[in-house]
Amino acid sequence: MEKPNLLIISHTYATFVKDQVNQMAPHFNMIYVLVRTNPLAEISRIIPVSYLIPFSVAQKIDLSNKPENVHVFQTPVLYLPTDSGYEKLGRNHLRSVERVIQQHSLKFDIIHAHFTWSAGYVGSKLKEKYAVPFIITAHGMDIYDMPFRNAFYKETISSILNSADHIITVSSNNVQCIQRLEVQKPVSVILNGYNDAVFF
């Protein structure tokens, strides 16, 4: 049986996301990692604006020791770090991802999104369009903080999680936040830095 292709929608290919992708690489034919970038952050290459440095491509994408079957693409989204900028981010991120999929004729059997907003939004919309399974990992403030800021995020993130076929998160506290959103999908807890998994 041929190995499937995996599409990963993420905000980074570095540290913990990269480690996970590289460990999964032997189990897939191809892994396509689409990393959201903001061209504004590249100002930090010219002017040392400390706030922008963590968002630069150099910090978000680490291609060292990348497996041959892992292909990393930037999905640039120009936005300002304002409330309205973040609320529009999902739709703009989706358009950028769809351009890359079309330009490179990417074929995939499974979608895995890291972070509920905006990658999770993109993953949920791609699931609708391509009718493939969708897994989401809710890491931190995207699940214990953002959904409880206002009605927009609560409704949107609840919808994203309910569209997933499976949810992964990194702590039991995050599971409680997911339950507060009345999400009815199965959740696995994979603790950061551990190999143990707990299923709910």
Overview of the molecule:
This protein is of the alpha/beta class and 200 residues long. It has eight helices and eight strands, in the order βαβαβααβαβααβαββ. Strands 3-2-1-4-5-6-7-8 form an eight-stranded mixed sheet, with helices on both faces. Strand 6, helix 8 and strand 7 form a beta-alpha-beta unit. The radius of gyration is 16 Å and the shape is globular. 34% of the residues are buried.
Major sheet size, sense and barrel closure: 8 strands, mixed
The number of distinct helices, counting runs of at least 4 residues, comes to 8
Q: What order do the strands of the largest sheet run in, or round the barrel if closed?
A: 3-2-1-4-5-6-7-8
| Broad structural category | alpha/beta
**Topology order in helix (H) and strand (E) letters:** EHEHEHHEHEHHEHEE
Helix content: 25-40%
Mean pLDDT: 90
How many angstroms does the end-to-end distance come to? Answer: 30 Å
C-alpha geometry: globular
* Uncertain residue ranges: 194-200
The portion of residues forming beta strands comes to 15-25%
Number of strands: 8
In angstroms, what is the radius of gyration? 16 Å
